[in-house]
Design a protein that fits this description.
Elements: H1 2-6, E1 16-17, E2 53-54, H2 56-121
Antiparallel strand pairs: 1-2
């Protein structure tokens, strides 16, 4: 589980309790094959021989912060949605007005066509 967190965010490294000697410059990636059946050599990758573990209590502030960021993003998106809904309503109203004008022009054209047909038939 602790290895999984290494790929998530660099800040989570502070939550890993391991036997790194001087964290800067340590190779956090494992060496060896990508084959899951082969165990990588964690000791030569800088992990040492002590098992890695996760301090879940140190993850709590990161999770709270990420929830706050997501909430801010949600509020921004909801605000944008209200703006877009208002713009859509305005465009629909303008479209309805133009459609009414088109309908009026069609009626006038049809009336003119009918008058022209009446004159031609007379």
């Amino acid at each position: 589980m602790a290895l999984h967190y290494l790929d998530l965010r660099p800040r989570i490294l502070i939550c890993l309790c391991h036997s790194f000697h001087g964290i800067p410059g340590v190779n956090y990636r494992t060496t060896g094959s990508d084959d899951p059946q082969e165990d990588p050599d964690y000791d030569s990758a800088g992990w040492g021989t002590q098992s890695a573990s996760v301090s879940y209590t140190q993850l709590i502030p990161l999770l709270v912060k990420s929830n706050q960021e997501l909430h801010e993003r949600l509020v921004d998106l909801e605000s944008a949605q209200v703006t877009y809904d208002a713009q859509i309503a305005d465009l629909e109203a303008a479209n309805d007005a133009k459609q009414g004008h088109i309908d009026e022009l069609e009626e006038r054209v049809n009336a003119l066509v009918a008058r022209m047909e009446a004159v031609e038939n007379a």
